[in-house]
Amino acid sequence: MSLRKVKGIPKIPKTRKKKPQAIIKSVPLKKSDKLEFICKVYFKYDYKLKKQFVAFLIETNIEFTNFTYEITVELLIEKNVLYFVITGLVARMDVVPQIARASKELLLDNLTGNFIVNVVKQDGAINSAEFHFNVFNKEIRIIREFIPKKKNNRYFCKFEVAEEKFAFPESV
Fold it and tell me: What is this structure's pTM?
């Protein structure tokens, strides 16, 4: 019995991409607490743009050996609330393989005062921290770290202020 001839190239369905609002509203599966991500916050000055930023470095707790990965993150800003929705990992095209954590640095300007930062995983789990940003006094403080009330929500992200990475313009 011969195979039938294919008239055209079959179409492969695209995977559905979840929107950040849908990820935030979704209920995660029940899992145990496990530290997976670290969110470091610091001031960063860009000498090319001559602009001061607040940098959020989200990195994995585990290190990858053969490939270097970058975390894909979607950002939502609502008044004084920031949502970093982690949507997955993408392999970087590096020539030399190295042992490194997957990471993503997000730069935001004009952050002054109190902000609630939410890190949201793809399954809908949320970890939050309230920060106080003061560029003039060169300080970032974590006011509180908390896990919002949500069914099956769990601890997966630690928040830190990375003072050793602070960068400001040099005074003349």
Answer: 0.85
Is pLDDT larger for residue 68 or for residue 56? 56
**Cβ contact 27:78 at 8 Å:** no
Residue 82 vs residues 6, 69, 88, 143: alpha-carbon distances, Å: 50, 24, 18, 15
Task: Please state the length of the chain.
Answer: 172
Is residue 131 classed exposed, middle or buried when 0-12, 13-18 and 19+ CB atoms within 10 A define those classes?
A: buried
Tokens 């030399």 belong to residue? 96
Q: In Å, what is the CA distance from 53 to each residue of 41, 81, 96, 161, 163?
A: 11, 17, 30, 14, 14
Residue 13 confidence (pLDDT) above 80: no
Sheet architecture: strand order including 113-120: 139-146, 126-134, 113-120, 81-91, 69-78, 100-108, 51-64, 37-46, 157-161
Average pLDDT for residues 25-51, to the nearest whole number? 93
